[in-house]
Amino acid sequence: MLKHSIQINNIPIPVYSLNTLIIGSGAAALNAAVNLVEFGQENIAIVTDNWGGGTSNNAGSDKQTYYKLSLSGKIPDSPFEMAQDLFNGGCMHGDIALCEAQHSAQAFYHLVQLGVPFPHDKYGGYIGYKTDHDPRGRGTSAGPLTSHLMFEALARDVKRKNIPVLDKYEIIALLTDIKGDEKHVVGAIALNKKELDNENMGFTVFNAVNVILGTGGPAGMYKTSVYPESQTGSSGLAFQIGAIGHNLTESQFGLASINFRWNLSGSYQQVIPRYISTDQNGNDEREFLDDYFSDMSTLSTAIFLKGYEWPFDPRKVKDYGSSLIDILVYQETVRKGRRVFLDFTKNPSGNGKMQDFTPEVLNKEAYDYLKNSDALRETPIERLQKLNQPAIDLYKDHNIDITVEYLEIAVCAQHNNGGLKGNIWWESNIKHLFPIGEVNGTHGVYRPGGSALNAGQVGSLRAAMFISKRYNTDYLKSDDFINSTELQIKDTFEFAMKIINPDKTKRAPLSSTLYEIQERMTGYGAHIRNPAEIKQAVSEAWELYLNLKSGVSVHSAKELPQVFKVLDLCLTHAIYLEAISEYLEKNGKSRGSYLVLNPKGSKPCDELGYEWRFGLNEDDAFVNQKILEIHFDEYMKVQKNWVDVRSVPDDELWFEKVWKEYRDGEVIK
Ligand SMILES: Cc1cc2nc3c(=O)[nH]c(=O)nc-3n(C[C@H](O)[C@H](O)[C@H](O)COP(=O)(O)OP(=O)(O)OC[C@H]3O[C@@H](n4cnc5c(N)ncnc54)[C@H](O)[C@@H]3O)c2cc1C
Question: Is residue 177 part of a domain?
Answer without folding.
Answer: no
